[in-house]
Amino acid sequence: ENTWIKFSSFLISKFGSYIYIIIIKGKCPEDGWDESTIELFLHELAIMDSNNFLGNCGVGEREGRVASGLVARRHYRLIHGIGRSGDISAVQPKAAGSSLLNKLTNSVVLDIIKLAGVRTVTNCFVVPMATGMSLTLCFLTLRHKRPKAKYIIWPRIDQKSCFKSMITAGFEPVVIENVLEGDELRTDIEAVEAKIKALGAENILCVHSTTSCFAPRVPDRLEELAVICANYDIPHIVNNAYGVQSSKCMHLIQQGARVGRIDAFVQSLDKNFMVPVGGAIIAGFNESFVQEISKMYPGRASASPSLDVLITLLSLGASGYKQLLKERKEMFSYLSSELKKLADNHNERLLDTPHNPISLAMSLKNLDENNDVAVTQLGSMLFTRQVSGARVVPCGSVQTVNNYTFKGFMSHANNYPCAYLNAASAIGIKKQDVDVFLKRLDKCLKTSRKEAKKEKSKIQI
User: Fold this and answer.
1) Cα→Cα distances 200→81, 206, 287, Å
2) 300 among the known binding-site residues?
3) What Gene3D superfamilies does the database record attribute to this sequence (predicted)?
């Protein structure tokens, strides 16, 4: 604590109002910093670590030695990482700068989560693992609280990492199939409650719900699930992978915590903050439980994800990040209207999924009826034309994941009515991305229909 105060005072004296808002208020600065100021700040943090002391004599097994100067510069000479062997959030005495970096990052990220819509969140920390392994860490923490539990209730979402996160933690996923309402796939609340009664609440580790997802699936009914969890005294973990960028997803979490129970929610760094893959944020409404999760992490950890997101948020500032959220929402509306026009031109339909704020889906009925292979070929054609991120989902595909067989895999349902194509408006997307995608998709659809007609005529002959 004394070290924290000492170095905080030093930085405030050096950077003045720049650093005051972060250290004293624990907030992201409203306006972004220029790169030279950020680099100077990181340099000041680095010289607080013992490996950068003049005349330092290290005789331990981990002394921050780096063989390559390029590697040292890549990490701004912040080599020691974060945490200690027993707690990823603990202060490391010989790495005061790295420890301060960790605390500042967690404070700034907490402020951004509040800004994005979850106002009553009390604690969070950045963990150097992607979303799947971060969910596993949450489940392992709950194991000690519920030693008899062996099941996790999981409304189906066809994404492998969240499914495997439960398997890796040693639990048995209980898959709750979604219900079709119009074009949307929604949470079957009655089936969730029936399964809890059948298995017994004491045998259930938690409910594992989802916000951000691919259409036509939509975010789970978090408020209803949170009430069920509160009524049956069952923990509730939310996979909020790329939901920070959506005010609707964040509102669902806030409301769920208000009316019921949400123990922790996990979000990806790269999907929400445009940094390299490899980090996530674990956040919650009970400060002691979030601390328990951080203490479950074994050993020290890489500081790279914390460094990346801190640099990014200092560069953007709160106003810059809010502007990105605003632009993403505008691009979603633009993508939706333009994709609907294209769908109409090809006698297809933009599926009606108003509860999904990020992802859209367009039917591919004409291709599917002409030739089963034509649907998957469309995906290949888009990829070879440098369209990334679009998902083409055929009907009836089967996939086995850890001995569990999913029918209609990728469509979140055993028998979705039609094949479809997904496109998403994620943070950072530009109008040019949308325009180029639609132009290339239009050409690919025309080519696919021509080829499908040729195949059909050959079969008739």
Assistant:
1) 43, 12, 28
2) yes
3) Type I PLP-dependent aspartate aminotransferase-like (Major domain) (3.40.640.10)
